[in-house]
Amino acid sequence: MGTWNSRGLRGSTLEDMVNRTNEWYLEKNLALMQKIPTPITPVRMDKEHRQITLAYFDQRSTIDYIGAVQGIPVCFDAKECVAETFPLQNIHEHQVEFMKNFEKQQGVAFVLIYYSSRNILYYMRFEELYRFWMRAQNGGRKSFRFEELDERFFMKFFHGCYVPYLDALNLDLELRDELDKTDETAYNAK
């Protein structure tokens, strides 16, 4: 099991931006999203500065954020990537399983990826993540490349620091509606 000292602050830039965005969405009555804390057990403390210097994760966390957007249950994870290739080992099987079950309950699950070298954000629909995940499980690439991503879901920071994931979520929902209509038309034609 990893330690907080070695892994705990990775992704903190994106997390700070997402937290700020969530506060802004709440102020505008657009969404209520909560950060799910990762349970840790402190091992070593710096008493002078009252800081944890070493800790162990108690259990696996599911995803980073959960809440509701205009009555729609939403959960997502936030990841940072420096390279052009995103290793799927950064997303754990229990997280994929949680998001899969969340989607089965009519919720919307996704992953926000911050490509720090490009200073660009990506909204990865669960369907897209699952396709890459299954490719890896079936012996294919254990990562996905920047070029493989759907151009419609790249985002730029709003006002330089806000993560406009509600716009991407809206597009995600529109695509789902289109697919539902296509499936319904095909079903009725039979």
Automatic annotation (TrEMBL):
First-listed, main subcellular location of the protein, grouped into a coarse class: cytoplasm
InterPro entries, per database record: Resolv_RecU, Restrct_endonuc-II-like, tRNA_endonuc-like_dom_sf
Keywords: Cytoplasm, DNA damage, DNA recombination, DNA repair, Endonuclease, Hydrolase, Magnesium, Metal-binding, Nuclease
Cofactor (UniProt): Mg(2+)
Annotated site residues (Transition state stabilizer) in this chain: K79
Cofactor binding note: Binds 1 Mg(2+) ion per subunit.
Catalytic activity: Endonucleolytic cleavage at a junction such as a reciprocal single-stranded crossover between two homologous DNA duplexes (Holliday junction)
Domain of life from the UniProt record: Bacteria
Residues the record lists as binding Mg(2+): T62, D64, D77, Q95
DNA damage is among the record's keywords: yes
This enzyme's EC code(s): 3.1.21.10
Catalytic class of the enzyme: hydrolase
Pfam families hit by this protein: RecU
Compartment(s) where it occurs, according to its Swiss-Prot or TrEMBL record: Cytoplasm
Family: Belongs to the RecU family.
Function summary: Endonuclease that resolves Holliday junction intermediates in genetic recombination. Cleaves mobile four-strand junctions by introducing symmetrical nicks in paired strands. Promotes annealing of linear ssDNA with homologous dsDNA. Required for DNA repair, homologous recombination and chromosome segregation.
Entries under HAMAP family matching the protein: RecU
Name of protein: Holliday junction resolvase RecU
Species whose genome carries this gene: Dorea amylophila
